[in-house]
Amino acid sequence: MTNKLKNAFLKTADVLVENKDYLTELDSAIGDGDHGINMARGFTKLAEKLSNNSYNSNSELFKTVAMTLISSVGGASGPLYGTAFLNISKVITDQKAELDNLIAIGEEAVAGVQKRGRAEAGEKTMLDTLIPAVDSLKESHQQGLDMQTALVNCQAAAKLGMKNTIEMQATKGRASYLGERSIGHQDPGATSSYLIIKTFIDQFA
Amino acid sequence: MTNKLKNAFLKTADVLVENKDYLTELDSAIGDGDHGINMARGFTKLAEKLSNNSYNSNSELFKTVAMTLISSVGGASGPLYGTAFLNISKVITDQKAELDNLIAIGEEAVAGVQKRGRAEAGEKTMLDTLIPAVDSLKESHQQGLDMQTALVNCQAAAKLGMKNTIEMQATKGRASYLGERSIGHQDPGATSSYLIIKTFIDQFA
Amino acid sequence: MNKKLINNPDDVVSELIEGLVLAKSDKLDKLADYNVVVRKDAPVEKVALVSGGGSGHEPAHAGYVGPGMLDAAVAGDVFTSPTPDAIFEAIKAVDSGKGVLLVIKNYTGDVMNFEMAAELAEAEGIEVEQVIVNDDVAVEDSLYTTGRRGVAGTVFVHKIAGAKAAAGADLKEVKRTAEKVIANVRSKGVAINPCRLPSAKESTFKLAEDEIEMGIGIHGEPGTERTKIKSVDQIVSELLSDIIADLPFTKDDKVALMVNGMGGTPLMELYIATRKAINFLTEQEIDVAKTYTGEFMTSLEMEGLSLTLLKLDNDLTELLNAETEINLFK
Amino acid sequence: MNKKLINNPDDVVSELIEGLVLAKSDKLDKLADYNVVVRKDAPVEKVALVSGGGSGHEPAHAGYVGPGMLDAAVAGDVFTSPTPDAIFEAIKAVDSGKGVLLVIKNYTGDVMNFEMAAELAEAEGIEVEQVIVNDDVAVEDSLYTTGRRGVAGTVFVHKIAGAKAAAGADLKEVKRTAEKVIANVRSKGVAINPCRLPSAKESTFKLAEDEIEMGIGIHGEPGTERTKIKSVDQIVSELLSDIIADLPFTKDDKVALMVNGMGGTPLMELYIATRKAINFLTEQEIDVAKTYTGEFMTSLEMEGLSLTLLKLDNDLTELLNAETEINLFK
Ligand SMILES: Nc1ncnc2c1ncn2[C@@H]1O[C@H](COP(=O)(O)OP(=O)(O)O)[C@@H](O)[C@H]1O
Ligand SMILES: Nc1ncnc2c1ncn2[C@@H]1O[C@H](COP(=O)(O)OP(=O)(O)O)[C@@H](O)[C@H]1O
Ligand SMILES: [Mg+2]
Ligand SMILES: [Mg+2]
Ligand SMILES: [Mg+2]
Ligand SMILES: [Mg+2]
Hints:
The complex is a heterotetramer, with 2 copies of chain A (205 residues) and 2 copies of chain C (330 residues). Chain A is an all-alpha fold.
C-alpha cells in the first residue's frame, strides 16, 4: 500500500509539472504568477526524494512528503500543503482504507490548512476544493455508498468546488488585494488541490 | 542687409526645426541620435533672440549668433558652428558682398571649425560639406562667373560634399567609434551644414 | 519574452546571493546549503534582526545585512516566501541568546513560513518575536481579509529597529520600536512596464503602450486602477495624496521620504519624481527631514516607482540617522 | 515609443537637477540659470574638481558632488555636452584660488566645450588643468582618430583625484593622480535593450528579441558586435577577457572591480554578473580588492551592464578607500 501511495505521489508530481504553466497563468491573473512554479519545484524535489528512498509505513511516507514540501514549495501553498500532509501523517495507518478513515484523513488535512491559513470555506482558496471533497465523502458514507462511487463523487465535488471559486471574491491570500476584481478568475490553489485529488483518485478508483 | 541676413537665420531656424527628426535619425545610425535635437534647440533659442533684438552691423549679428549657438547647442556641433560664426563676425563688413569677400568669409568659417575640431577634409564631418562649398566659390571666382551662378554652383557642391560623406569612414567625432561600420551612412553634421548653406543661398540667389 | 542577463532561471537566487557575498566577503557570509546571508561576525551580542522574503526585490533584503541593520536575510525563490527550514537556520546563526526579531512583509506565504520557523526556534529555546509590515495603502485594510501588503516601508523598519538593537535595547523594546515604525509608515506604487519571472514565458501582467497601473504591488500583483499615462508630476501628486490621507499625515508633520525605483526605472526619472514629491509635501507644509532616492525594494525589471512616507518624532529621527555600515541606506 | 516617468521632455535635465538638490539641500546648491550642481560649502580651500557631460548618465555626475569627490558637476542636455558658459560658471563657483581640474570624458563635444570654458577661465586668471578619460576598450585606439570613449571608469577618477585634492595636494599632483587612474582603468559594456532620448520618438537603436550588442557606448552608440543572447556568465567572461588583454592586467595584479548597470538592469542581474566577474578574475589569479555593484554611469533606461577594472597600487588603494560623503561610491 505504501508503495502504491508513493507511486500516486510520483504521478501527482508529473501532473503538477505538466500543469506548471497553467497554474502560473491562473496565479498571474489574481496573484503573483508563481503557483505553478512553486508546485512544480516542490513536487519535483519530492519525486527525487521518494524515488531514492523506500518507506516502511504510510505515516513515514506522509511525514516525508510534508517535510519535503515545507522545505521546497515556499510561498503560501508550501506551509499549507505541508501542514495538511503532516496532519495526515499523524492519523494515517497501514490498514486498508475504508470510507470512515478516509474521511478522518480528509478532515485532518482540512484542519491543517485551516490551522495554518486561518481561512474558511468561501474565501476563494484551496479550501474551496478540499472542504467540498471531504463533505462529499461524508455524504457518501451517510448514504452507505461503496468506496468506488464515493471516490467518483468526491472527485466531482472537488471539481465543482474548484469551479465555484471563479465566482468568489478572495478574502485570503494574495488575491484578496484585488477585492472585487478577484471575481471571475479560478483560484490557482483550488486548482492544484483538485489536480492532486483527481490524480490520487485516478490511481485508486 | 543685416536685416536680410537676420531673416536668413530665422528661415534657417525653421528649416532645422523641420529637419529635426531627419537629422536625429542620421545621428542615430552612427552617433548618439541628438544632432537634430541639438540644432533645433540652438536655432530655436537663436530665433527667439534675433526676433527680440535688432542689430546695427553684420558683425554684431554674427557675434550674437555665435554666442547664442555656443551657449545652447552643446555637443560637438555647438562649439564648431559657434566658432565658425564667431570667426565670420571678425571679418564680415556691411558692404555689399562680392565673391571675393564671400570666399574670405567661407575660409574663416572653415578655419574656425578646423581650429576647434582638428579635423581635415575626408574625415566624414561637416567639413566635407563646408570645404567643397568654399572651393566651389573659389573656382567660380577664378572662372570669372557671376555671383548668381557662383551661388548655384556652391549649393550643388555643398550637396555633393554632403552625399560624399556616405562613402567615407569617420575618423573624427562620435561616428569614428564605429570604424568601418560608419561607411554607408550620411554624416549628420555634413547634412546640417548643407541645410544651412542651402537656406542662405535660397534667400540670396 | 523579455531578455535577461542571467544563466539558468533556476539558479538566479543562489547566484545573486553568491555574487552579493563575494563582493563583500569581508563582511558577509552565506550559510552552506541555504540562500541565507548573515553578518560575518554573527552572532553579535545584541538582539538579532532577521528578515527576508521572496527574491526579485534586490537590494532587499540581503543588501541590508550589516552593522546597524539586519543580522540575517533569508532569500526565497523569486517572489516566493522562503521556507521555514531556511528561516530557522538564519535564526540559529544570529541568535546570541538575546533573542531574535523577525521582520515579515504581510503576505500569507511569508507570515506562515516565518511563523513555522518561529515555532521551530522556540522549540529549541530561542526567544523569537515578530512584526508584520503592511504599509501599502493601495490595498484596502480590513480585519476580515489578509490586510495590506508590506512593501518599501519595510526598509525603514530594518534601519530603525536595527539601530535600536545596535544600541543595546532588549527584544521587547526592539519589537516596540519596529511596531512604531510600522504604525507610522505608508507607501503606494505605480508601474509603467511589467516584469517577468525568470522561469515564466510571459510577463506577469501586460500594459498597453500608453497605459500605466496605479497601486501596483511588488510582485506584479494587479493594482487599483489602470489609466492612460500621465505626467510624473500628476502621478506623484496622486500617490502622495492617497498616502497622506491614509495615516493621515498633517501640516507640520516631520517625515522621511523614500522615492523607490522598481528595478527598471532610470535614476533620472526617480530624481524628477523626487523634485515633485518634495515640492508637493512642502506645499502641504509637511517637513521633509530626509529623502532617500534610489532602488530599495524592487520588483525584478519592472518600470515604475513607489513613494513611502514615514512620520518621524525625535526618537525615530535619531534612530534613522544612527550610524550604519549599509551605504545603500545611510 | 517606450513610456517614461517624466513631464515635458524639454525639462528633464533641469527637473532632475532640482530633485537631486532638493533631496540634499543641506549639502548641495544649484547655480541659478545653469544646470550646475556645486557643494554648498564651495569654494573649499583646496584644488577643485569639476566634471560633467551630457545628462542621462545619472547618478553621474551630479550624484558625485560632495566632500571627497567632485566640487561641481555640469549637466548638459540628454547625451549632449554642456556648453562652455555653464562650465565656466561652475569653475568660477568652486575655484578657491588653488586651481581647478576638469575631468572630461573623451567625446569631441565634451572636449571642445570644456576646452572653450577653460579658455574663458584662464582669461580671468583661474588656473585650470584637464584630464580626459578614455577607458572604453570597445573602441580601437588610434592617434589619427578621436580615440576611445570615456565611460564608467570616470567615476574612479572622481573618487581618487577627489581624495587627492581633499588631502591637500596641489593642482599638478591632483592632475598626475587623475592621469594615473586613467592609465590604469579599462571598461567594456553590453546592451540587451536600447534607450530612447526623451524628445525622440524611437529608441536610438533596435535589438531583436534574442539579440544583444557587445561593446556598446553609454549614449546608445553602436557597439562592436551583435550576437544572439548568451548566458550572463559567457558575456561577463568575454567582456573581462577583452578588458584584461588590453592593459594588460596580469596574474597577481590587485584590482578594483565595478559592475555597472546601464539604467534599466535590475540589481538581481548585476549581482549575478558580479559573481561571475569575481570568480573569473580569481581564476586568473587577479586579486579583487574592492567591488562596486550598482548604477554608477547609466544610459537612460538602457538594459545592460559594463565592467570596469582599475589596477591598484598602494597609493591608489589608499585614495580609493579614503573617506567621502558620497554613499553611492563608498
Ligand atoms: N489563508 C489561506 N488559506 C488557504 N489557502 C490559501 C490561503 N492563502 C493562500 N492560499 C492558497 O494559496 C494559493 C497561492 O499559492 P502560491 O501562489 O503558491 O503562494 P503565494 O500566494 O505566496 O504566491 C492561493 O491560490 C490559495 O488557494
Ligand atoms: N572634430 C570634428 N570636426 C568637425 N566636425 C565634427 C567633428 N566632430 C564631430 N563633428 C560633426 O558634428 C556632428 C555631430 O554633432 P552632434 O550630434 O550635435 O554632437 P555630438 O556628436 O556631441 O552628439 C557630426 O556629424 C560631425 O559632422
Ligand atoms: Mg503565487
Ligand atoms: Mg550627436
Ligand atoms: Mg509567491
Ligand atoms: Mg550628443
